[in-house]
């Protein structure tokens, strides 16, 4: 069964550094999402991406964040200048259609020191 | 925007008993309501979902009910087993790309 994959599984970085989190969505899916989960809290929406552009973003997704689909398979989340409060688990998800099931990747645990 | 509330935050049941988790949502345009199970350090795994055109859906020991008028939906797990122990999140979709808004989670503990 196809799965969403993410790399790296863990990332430790210094405050102010840039990080890029990578995701490979399920191949025939058209909708892509990033969510984050601070330890012990609920999953929060960051951004959705469809037809090569952002379709919606949350208040969390400020100018420090960007997303890109550089080729036909990868979907990346970049944080330009990390802050301590960016420490969280970041999940990528994909869905065939809007309003359909979203499948989550295994997550990248980001720790900002 | 959408607000999803979930309760209880923790639930402890004995093996074999039933567990019920309840959620409410605020956006009447929401039409898709998934439930995810998350084990410690793992990804959320979809266990069941329901769309607004049905009132109930069942899959073996798991069932979900939806009351659109009241904006309530519930997860029912029967004959609970220790491996059901996890955090369960409800969610509702909103927006043009159907982002999911999650509830705050219920930690279910099934004891022997």
How would you explain this protein's 3D organization?
The complex is a heterodimer of chains A (113) and B (112). The model of chain A has no long low-confidence stretch (mean pLDDT 94). Chain A is mostly beta strands and 113 residues long. By secondary structure, chain B is an all-beta fold. Chain B contains no helices and 11 strands. In chain B, strands 2, 4, 5, 9, 10 and 11 form a 6-stranded mixed β-sheet that branches. Chain B has a 5-stranded antiparallel β-sheet with strand order 1-3-8-7-6, with no helix packed on it. In chain B, strand 9 and strand 10 form a beta hairpin. Chains A and B meet through strand 4, strand 5 and strand 10 of A and strand 4, strand 5, strand 9 and strand 10 of B.
List keywords for this structure.
heterodimer; A: 113 residues; mainly beta; 7-stranded mixed sheet; 4-stranded antiparallel sheet; 0% helix; 50% strand; globular; B: 112 residues; 6-stranded mixed sheet; 11 strands
Radius of gyration of chain B: 13 Å
Query: Could you give the count of β-strands of chain B?
Result: 11
Number of beta strands of chain A: 11
Ends apart, CA distance between termini of chain B: 41 Å
Order of helix and strand elements from N to C terminus of chain A: EEEEEEEEEEE
Which structural class do the helices and strands of chain B define?
mainly beta
Strand content of chain A: over 45%
Q: Roughly what fraction of the amino acids of chain B lie in strands?
A: over 45%
Number of helices of chain B: 0
Low-confidence segments of chain A, given as residue ranges, are none
Sheet with most strands of chain A? 7 strands, mixed
Largest sheet of chain B: 6 strands, mixed
Fraction of residues in H or I helices of chain B? under 10%
Instruction: Give the chain pair forming the largest contact, with residue counts.
Output: A-B, 26 and 24 residues
Distance between the termini of chain A: 37 Å
């Amino acid at each position: 069964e196809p799965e969403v994959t993410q790399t790296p599984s863990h990332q430790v970085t210094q405050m102010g550094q840039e990080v890029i989190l990578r995701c490979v969505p399920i191949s025939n899916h058209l909708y892509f999402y990033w969510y984050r989960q601070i330890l012990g809290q609920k999953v929060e929406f960051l951004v959705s991406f469809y037809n090569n552009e952002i379709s919606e973003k949350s208040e969390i997704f400020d100018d420090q964040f960007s997303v890109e689909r550089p080729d036909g398979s990868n979907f990346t989340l970049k944080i330009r200048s990390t802050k301590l409060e960016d420490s969280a688990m970041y999940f990528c998800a994909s869905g065939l259609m809007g309003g359909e099931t979203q499948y989550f990747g295994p997550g990248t645990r980001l720790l900002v020191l | 925007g959408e607000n999803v509330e979930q309760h209880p935050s923790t639930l402890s049941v004995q093996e074999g008993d039933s567990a019920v988790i309840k959620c409410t949502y605020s956006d009447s345009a929401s039409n898709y309501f998934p439930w995810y199970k998350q084990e410690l350090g793992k990804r959320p795994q979809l266990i069941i979902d329901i769309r607004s055109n049905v009132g109930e859906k069942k899959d073996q020991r798991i069932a979900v009910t939806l009351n659109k008028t009241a904006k309530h939906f519930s997860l029912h797990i029967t004959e609970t087993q220790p491996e059901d122990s996890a955090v369960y999140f409800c969610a509702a979709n909103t927006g043009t790309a159907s982002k999911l808004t999650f509830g705050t989670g219920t930690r279910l503990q099934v004891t022997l």
